[in-house]
Specification:
By secondary structure, this protein is of the alpha+beta class. The protein has eleven helices and six strands.
Length: 438
């Protein structure tokens, strides 16, 4: 082999330096002199649990349910009556009559306990619904965090590719000035570098957008870019795991809060049936009254002394409406519906677990394709293409194709890592477990 010319040796040195620079392009975590604020997965999830606005709105259902118990304990209010029972407006000397009375409703004894039982059962349903909302929110928050990590890694790969193409553009411009290559090669390198710069700008926007999504989950209102964490700490390489659907389904049926809510819904429906039966009891009212009659005018037909009277009355409604029992029938239908909803939920949970497991197995197997050998070959391909182009043994188009292959392969690998993490989040959420760490 002939000895390389000084110009070719210079170009080779430039490409080797460019390779080292491209391999060491800093991620957004190290691009500032002062370390920027960062966000860890644990801090993020704890902040979501504490400050998420949707979760806070869901928590408000608990005091509402507690208040319904207080309302259910209320007794019917007595009625006080004070006034003139009669007043002589004709001037015939009739006696005037003042009255004071109180009416005390007497509710059927089982109604109040039945109302309280319904309110307490519905409070338990609200608690279970809150737990289930937190479960699904945690999954959504974790998925958003994985998306942010992926956007950050894609940005890094785009930056590396852009740095490599910028070095190619610089070296080709120098070689053109020396008369070693044609202008068309310089123009092609420049165009490719600009295109890669556009990819970097798009990736930067995606990374910022993903951090805004995290801010929304954390309940941060009106957050500007300067207040967002400039880096998201974590690792997408979650160790692959092996699961069996029978164990996952058993755990899900025993622990999922949405199933617990359905079971408590059956108890609440039964409590409403008991209340409907209690409501068929007859309420009575006891009335006690005092009446005072003034003196009748002397010489009139109503002449007489003043006197006092008392009365006691019991009002009992005639239960003609009890012939129809629509309220009981509706409550019993509601109980049947709640039981069917519980059965349907169990079938749905089992299907969710099996579907999530199938997707997780596929994501795990896909990730296994990107082993260390493939990634090492990808790096070696790009280095060989750089060296061959620097030596003049290949054309620029071949180097650009190798650069594209390198970038696409690494982005596909990062995407496979994110898909594996997403699939694991979905599986653990469906199974009612959680041990994810990023």
């Amino acid at each position: 082999m002939s000895q390389p010319s000084p110009l070719r040796a210079l170009a080779l040195a430039v490409f080797l330096v460019a390779s080292a620079v491209a391999a060491q392009v800093p991620s957004p975590t190290t691009s500032h002199t002062v370390p920027p604020p960062s966000l860890t997965f644990g801090t993020y999830l704890s902040t979501v649990a504490r400050a998420n606005v949707d979760l806070a709105a869901q928590r408000a259902n608990v005091p509402v349910a507690e208040a319904q118990i207080v309302i259910a304990r209320i007794f019917p209010d007595p009625v006080l009556t004070v006034g003139l029972a009669s007043l002589d407006v004709s001037g015939v000397g009739a006696q005037n009559n003042a009255a004071v009375g109180v009416t005390i409703p007497l509710e059927w004894p089982t109604k109040r306990p039945a109302r309280v039982a319904v309110a307490q059962a519905e409070r338990e349903v609200v608690h279970a619904d809150l737990e289930d909302f937190a479960r699904t929110l945690r999954a959504a928050a974790a998925n958003a965090y994985v998306d942010a990590l992926l956007a950050q890694r894609v940005l890094l790969r785009r930056q590396q590719a852009f740095a490599s193409l910028t070095a190619v553009e610089t070296a080709n411009a120098e070689r053109e000035r020396e008369g070693a290559i044609a202008e068309i090669v310089v123009l092609q390198a420049r165009i490719e570098a600009r295109r890669y710069r556009g990819d970097v700008i798009t990736a930067e926007g995606d990374a910022r957008a993903s951090r805004f999504a995290l801010a929304s989950q954390m309940g941060l209102q009106g957050v500007g870019p300067e207040r967002l964490p400039t880096t998201v700490d974590g690792e997408l390489r979650v160790p692959p795991q092996t699961f069996t659907d029978a164990a996952l389904i058993t755990h899900a049926l025993a622990t999922r809060p949405d199933l617990r809510a359905r079971q408590r819904g059956i108890r609440a429906a039964q409590a409403r049936v008991d209340l409907a039966h209690a409501n068929r009891g007859i309420d009575v009212a006891l009335s006690l009254g005092w009446l005072y009659y003034t003196e009748g005018q002397e010489g009139s037909a109503y002449q007489g002394p003043a006197y006092h009277t008392v009365n006691a009355l019991v009002s009992v409604p005639l239960p003609l409406s009890r012939v129809l029992n629509g309220e009981v029938q509706a409550a019993e239908a509601g109980r049947t519906q709640a039981e069917l909803q519980r059965s349907a939920a169990e079938l749905r949970v089992a299907a969710e677990v099996r579907a999530a497991l199938a997707r997780y197995d596929a994501a795990r197997d896909r990730l296994a394709e990107y082993d260390a050998t493939l990634l090492a070959d990808n790096d070696r391909l790009l280095e060989m293409a750089r060296y061959a182009f620097a030596q003049g043994a290949s054309r620029l188009i071949e180097l650009l194709a190798a650069q594209r292959t390198w970038t696409d392969t690494y982005i596909a690998y990062e995407t496979a890592l994110a898909d594996h993490a997403h699939a694991l989040i979905a599986l653990e959420t469906a199974a009612g477990t959680w041990d994810l760490a990023l």
